[in-house]
Design a protein that fits this description.
single chain, TIM Barrel, Rossmann fold, hydrolase activity, signal, Glyco_hydro_3_C, 947 residues, alpha+beta, Glycoside hydrolase family 3 C-terminal domain-containing protein, eight-stranded antiparallel beta sheet, Trefoil (Acidic Fibroblast Growth Factor, subunit A)
Length: 947
């Protein structure tokens, strides 16, 4: 190839060529070392070609995160609660515009955004519940598709940002998240976990995915064969797969899946990982591992080329190489009036009215309010929030809406002194902070003090500081000084009042009070050490800590009773702090409200039965609401959360948020955190057979709605559904019409009902609107394990329309010819062990490190696998199993006796050393159910029969 002249730019600079040709040209000009450099998150510049440095990964879950002030929208679970795809698309568009605007002034801001999270909210105790949209794959994919379309922009060639979906795959626990394996049977995989990803990718606005930390079926997601077998087949676009932070090293260091980092890096790259997020900004470790893998013959240069091609494809789509033609290059939309209004609109639409007995809500003008609770005057952020430019707490919103003369406040936390054994008290010294850390009126601004280590540590004095003790449940508390600063432990071990809020990867602002003798130890949770008073101040102790007496100056419950008794209505604002008891790295242990908040609620109800509970939380609670006249829930709603809640309570806006996940009544309703079999475990609204506290899709309104006229017909493989909804109330309100389907007499376990479509509409009083949906008949299909594909079974199907999964207003039944099932031809094809119809006490594990599944019994138990409708033709006389490990496989038909026992030889090899074992087994001709029993640490891959 001849070198281009200055007047002839190289082909990769020619915007008239296809992106594929431009990528090929640029790739051909890169040296091997330059290409290897592109595999790290922080890809260096190639100055000789005029190629800039590039960083994958900009967090943008509900606003631009970690890069300073930005518009903060409701948490993802709150956006899911809006059930409004058009609103969420506009939020995504606003976020992407702010990414571009911030990028223009700070090149640390990346255009490859790591959002949204499409992990399904299968289990409400998952610490990262706030990051997902819904427990339902249809709703999740609809919201995620809308958000990615907003992030991408609508230009046909150039993307405003390049969204990456998180976290691939079946990731719903933080406990042991890098070493635990999710056992996911094929039906659950295809009907549930893969579906949310697939539908979003196929919609065409996704640039890539990020594998999760966990393992699926015994294999780390970062070497998942599903990346090539499933993901890459869903689109013709080059999808960029970005590793999660530190996960490539986990393959050796914590998971011990590979012996060397060279093996692990090669396996991840071959599986489809294109960008390695590891060792921060230092790329030298990853690039050295890639070079080592190449030298050992584990990789070829063409393997590297495949990953770099996907990396470059994203950069071309972002307009990097056509700056003068990039329509997004001059975007300056940042903290605009439109974005502020959108943040408020989103927060309003996310509020869910769960209960409203006796019409207590909306509140009448002039109502005297008592606003109480630990979240009443808070506007909490989470790990993926930006820094607030504007904020409204519920107290501020209600005070602004009803007037200060009508609002009284009590936080409801205990005010305490901490007395040492020497008779002194913990004291926060005065600070000589300069004017730069003072607000407009000279008061200390806690936000400007966050993270400082030059402030004086706490001391022990004759006169103590009165602290606000905020009890977050499970023994976790925070302590706050009178000026609003939280006690925090710095790297030097000293305790200072220096944080505006609890936060950080390791939260330094949380403590426990542990009974000890006649007092309490005050233990810092972040270090696990008790506190002691030393000559240089209060600090974490290397040994025994100080014994403190807790002197209660005022009980939070007394303060609540006092203001509640003098109010017309009490609004209790309770919930969680997103950095405490349920967050990334930490699952919750219970659905229960913190005990202190329960006591505040009881105190309020006793003083004033007209008590409204407003839950502001990242996840569901099991709340005893029998004596509560009104109950609302909203996720942490970003900068406008307080204004939104006030406008809903006042009736300025009729609530129309809907629950994106089931609210269970009790912990006993929940499956095990690591039980990912939503079918066998009867999980989520799809299969749960108990009585929920509040069902999926539930949400009340200040209006009433009437449904009628359900009509259905099938044309050209499409199911057409239409009906009308009328606003029979006297206020303008939104309704969320929900369409569900159900197989009436399924041959295999199917959902009780399954969301097929939804639409949020605005109706004025008396207005009647026709709503129509079009569904491909494939939406009624299930994954047939016998045929390894989706199939629409013949039979009757119910079409259900209503206001929630349990509030069904209209129903019609239709019959479909479908595609009949056929018996499994086991004599010809055998059985893959993982393709069972039913099981007990087994889990799925990796057949090899790179592909395939086997089944093994849960340790210490006898596993059972059932395969229905197996066709043995004229009969069989033998059975052969392919298995590894030790133990036995037992064959029976249906509920009959054991026909054969196959024993694996002992000590024949490791978990991937499969042996073939045969035994005689006389099976009569015809169709039978096959039952296999697994005993011992056997790993069963396949079964075959001989005639």
């Amino acid at each position: 190839m001849s070198a281009p002249t200055p007047s002839t730019p190289p082909p990769f600079r020619d915007r008239h060529l296809s992106i594929a040709k431009r990528v090929d040209d640029l790739l051909s000009r890169l040296t091997l070392d330059e290409k290897i450099g592109f595999l790290h998150q922080f890809a260096p510049a190639v100055e000789r070609l005029g190629v800039a440095a590039f960083r994958t990964g900009q967090e943008a879950l509900h606003g631009v995160a970690w890069m300073g002030p930005a518009t903060v929208f409701p948490q993802a679970v709150g956006l899911g609660a809006t059930w409004n795809t058009e609103l969420v698309r506009r939020v995504g568009e606003a976020v992407s515009r702010e990414v571009r605007a911030m990028r223009a002034r700070d090149d640390r801001v990346g255009l490859n955004v790591w959002a949204p999270t499409v992990n399904l909210l299968r289990h409400p105790l998952w610490g990262r519940n706030e990051e997902g949209y819904s427990e339902d794959p249809e709703l999740t994919s609809a919201i995620a598709t809308a958000y990615t379309r907003g992030l991408r922009g609508d230009h046909p060639t150039y993307w405003r940002t390049a969204p990456v979906l998180k976290h691939w795959l079946a990731h719903n626990n933080e406990t042991g998240r890098d070493v635990t394996s999710s056992s996911v049977r094929p039906r659950v995989l295809h009907e549930y976990d893969l579906r949310a990803f697939r539908d979003t990718v196929e919609a065409g606005a996704v640039a890539g995915v990020m594998p999760a930390y966990n393992l699926v079926n015994g294999r780390p997601n970062h070497v998942s064969p599903y990346l090539r077998e499933q993901l890459r087949g869903w689109t013709e676009e080059e999808l960029l797969v970005c590793s999660d932070a530190g996960a490539p090293s986990n393959l050796v260091d914590s998971e011990h899946y590979f012996d060397t980092h060279e093996e692990a890096t090669a396996a991840a790259l071959l599986a489809g990982v294109d960008s390695f997020t590891d060792h921060g900004t230092d790329s030298s470790t990853i690039t050295a591992r890639v070079r080592g893998a190449l030298e050992q013959g584990l990789l070829t240069e063409s393997d590297v080329d495949a990953a770099v091609r996907r990396h470059l494809s994203v950069r071309f789509r972002l307009g990097e190489f056509d700056p003068e033609h990039d329509p997004h290059a001059l975007t300056a939309a940042f903290d605009t009036p439109d974005h502020r209004a959108l943040a408020q609109e989103a927060a309003e639409q996310a509020v869910v009215l769960l209960k409203n007995s006796g019409g207590l809500l909306p509140l009448a003008p002039g109502t005297r309010l008592a606003v109480v609770g630990p979240l009443a005057d808070e506007c909490k952020l989470d790990w993926y929030s930006g820094t607030l430019l504007h904020r409204r707490t519920p107290l501020e919103g209600l005070t602004e809406r009803f007037g200060p003369e009508h609002v009284r406040f009590a936080e409801g936390v205990d005010r305490i002194l901490l007395k040492t054994s020497a008779g002194t008290f913990l004291h926060v010294p005065e600070t000589d902070a300069d004017d730069a850390v003072r607000g407009a009126e000279g008061a200390l601004d806690p936000a400007l003090l966050a993270g400082r280590t030059d402030l004086p540590p706490l001391t022990a004095e004759a006169t103590g500081t009165e602290f606000s003790l905020v009890d977050w449940g499970e023994g976790v508390l925070t302590l706050r000084a009178p000026d609003g600063r939280y006690l925090s432990v710095a790297e030097d071990g000293l305790v200072r009042a220096s944080a505006d809020q609890p936060g950080g990867w390791v939260v330094q602002e949380t403590f426990r009070l542990e009974p000890h003798g006649n007092g309490h130890l005050l233990r810092h949770i972040g270090t696990g050490r008790p506190l002691s008073v030393a000559a240089d101040g209060l600090k974490v102790a290397a040994g025994d800590g100080e014994i403190f007496e807790v002197v209660v100056v005022e009980s939070g419950e007394d303060a609540v009773r006092r203001v509640a008794a003098r109010a017309d209505v009490v609004v209790v604002v309770a919930g969680n702090d997103p950095h405490i008891n349920g967050r990334e790295t930490e699952d919750r242990t219970t659905l229960a409200l913190p005990a202190h908040q329960e006591r505040l609620l009881r105190a309020s109800r006793a003083a004033n039965p007209r008590t409204v509970l407003a839950l502001v939380s990242a996840y569901p609670y099991a709340v005893d609401h029998a004596e509560l006249p009104a109950l609302l829930w909203t996720a942490h709603g970003g900068q406008a959360a307080g204004t939104a809640l006030a406008r809903i309570l006042a009736g300025d806006v009729s609530p129309a948020g809907r629950l994106p996940q089931t609210w269970y009544a009790d912990d006993s309703d929940l499956p095990g955190l690591l039980d990912y079999d939503v079918i066998g475990g009867r999980q989520t609204y799809l299969y749960f057979e108990g009585t929920p506290l509040f069902p999926f899709g539930h949400g009340l309104s200040y209006a009433s709605f009437f449904y009628e006229g359900l009509r259905t017909h099938i044309e050209d493989g499409t199911l057409h559904v239409s009906f009308t909804v009328a606003n029979t109330g006297d206020v303008v309100a939104d309704e969320v019409a929900q369409l569900y389907t159900r197989a009436v007499e399924p041959s295999v376990p199917r959902p009780r009902r399954e969301l097929a479509a939804h639409r949020r509409v605005t109706l004025v009083p008396g207005e009647v609107m026709e709503i129509a949906f079009r569904l491909p008949l494939s939406a009624l299909a299930f994954w047939d394990v016998a045929q390894g594909r989706r199939r629409v079974a013949p039979g009757r199907y119910e079409i259900l329309v209503g206001a929630s999964s349990e509030d069904i207003r209209l129903t019609r039944t239709l019959g479909l010819d479908g595609e009949p099932s056929v018996p499994r031809p086991v004599l010809a094809d055998g059985l893959d062990a993982v393709d069972f119809d039913d099981q007990s006490d087994t889990e799925i594990v990796d057949r090899t490190r790179t592909a395939g599944d086997s089944v093994t019994p849960v340790t210490g138990r006898t596993g059972q696998l059932v395969y229905r409708d197996c066709d043995f033709g004229a009969g069989a006389d033998g059975i052969t199993v392919e298995a590894a490990g030790e133990g036995t496989v037992e064959l029976a038909l249906g509920d009959g006796p054991v026909l054969a026992v196959l024993t694996l030889p002992r000590g024949t090899g490791g978990r991937y050393d499969y042996a073939t074992v045969s035994a005689p087994a006389v099976v009569a001709g015809g169709v039978h159910d096959v039952r296999l029993g697994l005993r011992g640490p056997v790993r069963l891959a396949r079964v075959a029969f001989t005639a």
